[in-house]
Amino acid sequence: MPKAGRFFHVTAAVVLIALVVAGFHRFYFEGRAYPGRELTPPIRTLVIVHGTAMSLWLLVFLAQSILILSGKRQTHMRVGKIAAVLAAVIVVLGLKVGIEAARVKPPGQLTAGLDPKQFMAIPVISVLVFGGFVAAGVLYRRRPAVHRSMMLLATVAAITAAVARIDTLSDLYAGTIWDRIWGPYFMTLVLAVIFLGFKCVLRRSLDRPFAIGCVILALVFAANVQLATTPAWNSIASALLRWTA
């Protein structure tokens, strides 16, 4: 299904962009944070730079999918080098935002039921998962089926924060067992599984790289939610805050 697959990735990119705009509409249109508060002054510039870099990644992902659909592989490969650098910048910025957000929040402030150091696990691990999938995509750039799957999984992992801020979706599973297992990651995982289903229908067979990636997402996301409240993560978070002070 070469042609159908390329259309799929363009469509997936548009869906991901739409979800990010929906989740961060206050940021894009009002310059405010969720759920309508001011961007925290000490990290306001950092948050804006990070948001801009992530927005660029989504646009590049869409452009790369369109280039493949148009048969412009050489241009796709040249843009891919820029995208790899952008991904590295996003990892650094994402780690910085996650750590600094925990530093400036009041110790007793809860987000998704987690205190600042506990919640730090969510953005920190999310951006590392993004970086891991991008690295896998670069490593397998000469195997298009694997490369496409890894880049899509990276982008899905990167939009967790946006999807978790769409209250209509979050309310569907709040307080359920899915919330206890996967927390703010659950709808992101559902999205990945939906994409897997469509890919399998189009291919008329299982997309093994993407399926394996979905399993990795499910395991890492669940482990991360459970890790966040442990003394082990508290020690890691405290060390990160000290090292970056």
> Portion of residues in helices?
over 70%
Count of individual helical segments: 13
3D shape: globular
Strand content: under 5%
Notes on the structure:
By secondary structure, the protein is an all-alpha fold. The protein has one domain (2-233). The protein has helices spanning 2-23, 25-30, 44-69, 73-104, 116-119, 121-139, 144-158, 160-164, 167-170, 177-182, 186-203, 208-227, 231-243. The N and C termini lie far apart (51 Å).
Which helices and strands occur, and which strands form pairs?
Elements: H1 2-23, H2 25-30, H3 44-69, H4 73-104, H5 116-119, H6 121-139, H7 144-158, H8 160-164, H9 167-170, H10 177-182, H11 186-203, H12 208-227, H13 231-243
Helix pairs in contact: 1-3, 1-7, 1-11, 3-4, 3-7, 4-6, 6-7, 6-12, 7-12, 11-12
Quickly list its features.
single chain, 245 residues, mainly alpha, 13 helices, globular
Task: Please sum up the structure shown.
By secondary structure, the chain is mainly alpha-helical.
